Each structure stands twice: as structure tokens, then as C-alpha cells.
Amino acid sequence: MDYIEKRERLVKNLVERKILKTKNVIHAMLVVPREEFLPENAKSSAYIDSPISIGCDQTISAPHMNAIMCEILNIEQDDKILEIGTGSGYHAALCAELISFKHKDFKGHVYTIERYKELAEKAKENLKKTGYDNRVTVIEGDGTLGYPEKAPYDKILVTAASPEKIPVPFKTQLKVGGILCIPAGTKNYIQRLYKIQKLEAEFKIKEITSVRFVPLIGQYGFSDID
Ligand code: SAM
Questions:
Q1: Which atom of ligand 1 is nearest to the CA of 113?
Q2: Once rounded to an integer, what is the mean pLDDT over residues 102-119?
Q3: Are 127 and 136 in contact, with CB atoms under 8 Å apart?
Q4: Within its chain, how far is the Cα of 42 from the centroid?
Q5: Which residue has the higher pLDDT, 194 or 103?
Q6: Domain ranges of the chain
């Protein structure tokens, strides 16, 4: 079975499990080639619904987690998106596909931050070879500070586990009406995934499910020594 068939089978399974629901997210998961974001020796596992090591002790999330987060964010054409935790660049590519869904003159953009230089460089390569580099900018640095240069954002996606106290920059750099999707809780155990909507005078917080992510390390995140 080739990659396209395996991808279609995985997407069908995620639809049957009612994880994938909306047309544009289904489309994105069908067209972005996950195998191109994996190390050579892991490509054959690209369509198993599981996290996979990508180096620097980090992982690309399981496809069902990418699907859940994309569904939560309700990404629209022309959204300006900030992702914290580029990793392989795969989730940034999904976001890029979503902002340009059936839309050639897209105005949106994805900014994604990674703390490991090695992963940031590899993600840039992955995004270039898959053609998403015109919609995604990879930045190397501490993503817990957000990226004030391009704020405010329509959507902020955090793909590493934050402490229970959500980093302040994510809240200030989100547009009113915008959505923040973030796992938060303990450093090395189970966390909860939250959908946080910024309203005029408050934040509306919805707990979605239990998750397990690698920690968000940085000034407003966890320390890397304990
Ligand atoms: N979204 C990624 C993908 O599609 O491959 C997977 C992300 S992986 C689960 C979490 C990533 O967050 C790791 O690459 C890790 O190095 C990164 N990370 C952790 N703390 C960070 C921080 N403060 N700033 C930027 N990246 C961070």
C-alpha cells in the first residue's frame, strides 16, 4: 500500500471515530504528506496513529491530536496563526493548508517557533520541499514569549505542555474573538487540552480532553533542569 492509500485509510478511521469532522480539516489531513516530515527510518510508520521521535528528544504528535487541535481552532481562510513548538513542521503545514483552502489569493500566514535550532532548520527544509514555505515562517527561539512582532493573532496553537498558569504573552497576543488551543498541567504526566476564547472583557475556557505532551520549556513555561 502506498503513502496516499495509507493516508486515506487513516483519515477515514479518524472520521469514523468522529475526531475529524469538518470538510476543510479532512481535506488538509488528506493532502499534507506526513511522511515528508519524518526522519528517513520512520517514514514507513507515517500513517500509524501514534507520536514519533524526530530527534532532540522531541516528537511529532499523533495524527488524531493534530486533528483534534485543528478542529478546535476553526481555522479560516486568511487567519494569522502563531504556533509554539514547530517540531517537524507538520502541524504548521496543516495550518497553512487550512488558511489557503480553495483560495489562491490567501492573505493569512503561519508563524511557528521552535527552541531547538536543529529542529527549526529541519522543519524549514520539510516545509520547503512540500511547498508550504510561502505560507509559513519558522522562528528559532523561546515561544513562551509569543511573537510580538506580528501580533495580534487570530489563532494560537501550543503543541507542548504549558504549566497550569497559561503564559501571559499568549493571552495578550491573541485578538479579541481569537482562539488559543493549549495543553496545560504537569510537566511530565497527563495534562488537559483547553480551548480558550478571548472575549471583550474575559476569557471563555473549555476543557476538551486529557492529553500527554512534551513540556513547554522557557521563561513562561517549565524549567529544563527539573
Ligand atoms: N507541532 C510539532 C509537529 O507538528 O511536529 C510537534 C511539536 S512537539 C510535540 C513539541 C515541540 O515544542 C518540540 O519540538 C519542542 O522542542 C518545542 N518546544 C518546547 N518548548 C518550546 C518553547 N519554549 N519554544 C518553542 N518551542 C518549544
A1: 25
A2: 92
A3: yes
A4: 20
A5: 194
A6: 3-211
- State the Cα–Cα distance between residues 46 and 3, nearest whole angstrom: 8
CB 146 within 8 A of CB 82: yes
Residue 146 in this model has a pLDDT that exceeds 90: yes
Main-chain phi, psi angles of 83, to 5 degrees: -110, 135
C-beta 88 within 6 A of ligand 1: yes
Outline where DSSP puts E strands in 11-89: 52-55, 58-60, 80-84
What is the distance between the alpha carbons of residues 219 and 156, in angstroms, rounded to a whole number?
18
Which residues are known to be catalytic? 61
Answer yes or no: is pLDDT of 106 > 90.
no
Q: How far is Cα 178 from Cα 191, in angstroms, rounded to an integer?
A: 22
Interatomic CA distance for residues 101 and 98, integer angstroms = 5
Spacing, Cα 1 to ligand 1 middle (Å):
31
Superfamily of domain 3-211 in the CATH hierarchy: Vaccinia Virus protein VP39 (3.40.50.150)
Give tens-digit pLDDT for 156-169. 999 999 999 999 99
